[in-house]
């Protein structure tokens, strides 16, 4: 449905709307196209108007409209031309269609969404700005009950969230189930940035949804989102509100069987009870001044980053965004840096694994595994030559006690070697599986697994835009042509911002 042979290789491939696959640490992104030579359109004049809109062939679209095509007419999938132009960020076509009578808030598609909803799902901020200028209503909800700001939070497009708020959207707007953006962020977004960003706008911490009567803190604990729990507790979320089952956040934490979560809530509860002490209240008065100064410095730092510009009337308005997060990147709180094509933050080497050192990390795991095997072989040789015991003659328990008595130090080396050999071997196998058969990083795979649990639609780890086949995935990762059998795609993930479509499949899941 994306176009025939004459159109499907145009330089900007079209997007299709996705079902709601709620993101985790990195969220829903557009489907990327790996850089390369621009495909050639054999004969644009053969494209129908839907395909021409998807691929941005402006002259062909104008030709068909002038010939009498009704821009308000939906296609067989109940999708209008304005939807296709919005999801593919065709700003010139959006202006043209609206000038020809297109309805800016027309509902369409499987999710009964507006063109604004489609643009938000793909993270097209310029298109969102244009549609709002043309009169799009951001308060409208789609077929799943989400308004524009909820979709922006779900897919973790924070610039769009900030822009919608600057245009008057209420930070505490509720969806069909009564959930606020903060609740959705606490429930769906594992990364701390969305929740931290929303808290800057002073949302209601104690609002409850219509169904479960859960607060944002309830939802964060239920979903195991430790970063959101920490942020909400620090912001002062109530620990006393009970949901429809009569459960407080601490009760929900006990049910989750997450000891760390229970510890966080109980520690916060203990700290708050201590603050009720009269003496501590006196001391707290003097702490307020330092906190105001600290928060003021943080706010000034935030403003200096270019996200906001304070107007002469004192009202913060969106000006511009200096830094854009590259595709597949993630900000690491431990390293305090943005890591391109981030895989994980490794505790064993004390830094993040990304595009610059991922291959060396696999080499590290390989050498660690081989060193462990060599040590295990050496300890077994030592025991066979220096310990007067035999597993076949003495049995397991006698053999075990004798080798410990023979040389405790060698047994300690054997234990350590076993531990490192096992985890390095297993993790190396997992890494190679993700690279070769999924084309994903560990962070992206974790996000998809989280989506699979919470999404109403099936989520496949294999059907992603990054999975180009086993051998092509390996060639791209190791940048190896295998004597000319493969042509690796060269992608600078530190500068890859444009989100296009590469996968041949129709139904793919963004990561």
TrEMBL record:
Gene3D superfamilies: Ankyrin repeat-containing domain (1.25.40.20). This is Palmitoyltransferase. It comes from the Eukaryota. Pfam families: Ank_2 (PF12796), DHHC (PF01529). It is an enzyme of class 2 (transferase). Belongs to the DHHC palmitoyltransferase family. AKR/ZDHHC17 subfamily. It is found in: Cytoplasmic vesicle membrane; Golgi apparatus membrane. The DHHC domain is required for palmitoyltransferase activity. It comes from Bubo bubo. ANK repeats lie at residues 77-109, 111-143, 144-176, 177-210, 212-244. Residues 322-447 form the Palmitoyltransferase DHHC domain. One of its GO terms (molecular function) is protein-cysteine S-palmitoyltransferase activity. Its EC number is 2.3.1.225. The keyword Membrane applies. It is a multi-pass membrane protein. Keywords: Acyltransferase, ANK repeat, Cytoplasmic vesicle, Golgi apparatus, Lipoprotein, Membrane, Palmitate, Repeat, Transferase, Transmembrane, Transmembrane helix. The keyword Lipoprotein applies. One of its GO terms (cellular component) is cytoplasmic vesicle membrane. Its main location: membrane. The chain crosses the membrane at residues 360-384. It catalyses: L-cysteinyl-[protein] + hexadecanoyl-CoA = S-hexadecanoyl-L-cysteinyl-[protein] + CoA.
